[in-house]
Amino acid sequence: MKNFAIFISPLIIAFFAIQIGEIDFFSAMNGIYKYIFFNTELDNNASIIFDIRFPRILLAILVGASLSGCGAIMQNIFKNPLIDPFLLGISSGAALGCAMSIGIFPNISLSLLAFCGAFFSSILILLIGKVANNTSLILCGVVISAFLSAITALIQFFVPAQESQAITIWLFGSLSLATFGDIALVLVGFIISFIPLFILSRKINILSLSEDEAISLGINTWAIKIICMLCVSFICALCVSVSGTIGWIGLIVPHIARFLVGANMKILLPSSLALGASVLLISDSIARGVSNFDLPLGAINAIIFAPFFLFIVYRYIKNARN
What we know:
Blueprint: H1 2-17, H2 25-38, H3 44-77, H4 90-103, H5 110-131, H6 134-158, H7 161-172, H8 180-199, H9 201-206, H10 211-216, H11 221-243, H12 249-261, H13 265-289, H14 297-321
Helix pairs in contact: 1-13, 2-3, 3-8, 3-11, 3-12, 3-13, 4-5, 4-6, 4-7, 4-11, 5-6, 5-11, 6-7, 8-11, 12-13
């Protein structure tokens, strides 16, 4: 029953999120029904729901699920509960690629450069992870993230004002410009990335053991980590390319899922996907519902989840001492 509630939570939250604001929801849905089946013209209410809110909510579900699932995978393969794509610099690498596409190479696909940046960060993290302990890995990830963010800032400084403003707004993280094309792009990336991760879930479970134990069970740990990081880099890059940098989801939500369903990746991964979708839907609803402005998602998530992160760090330190 608990697992069922987790899996349907995105649908329930989406149903309420789509009704936020002064709009006649049922009249709008009737207009959308006539538009789809009888090719009638959309009225204002139906157009707001169909052209703006549907894409935004669907993209929030996909991006939230993707970032949370990536966090669950990374925390497991590195055996560290304080790791996520944002903290280790993968999101910053993707952000650098996007900034280069906007400000320097406008003729090169934004998603392609985002993937290159994310993959570069992933390779650095894997190489560092071979020789570093948990604390060193986090510190190195923070340094990599800061370095890549500094290059992004330099790009903003030197490009024309219009491109610089576009990069700044995009770095805040937002789903306000969501389109059905963005949804199709992320959906394809989601399928390509998470099918291998689901297939490898048993082996990813074994990676939570020590290196020697995993090898003794016949697991090629390096190959599994490479595959996982390729998948994580790919979907993170696509998410960053359509929504900007959205932090905290990949760090916090897997902890909530682990508390609710346990550490078995076969259950933890789908639960993280569902909870990530629900959490980002809630954050986005707050971003567009608390004022007349569309607040940046990155700031909303930081305000909500920073205290929770401090609690996780406290628990982590306490357990390490014991």
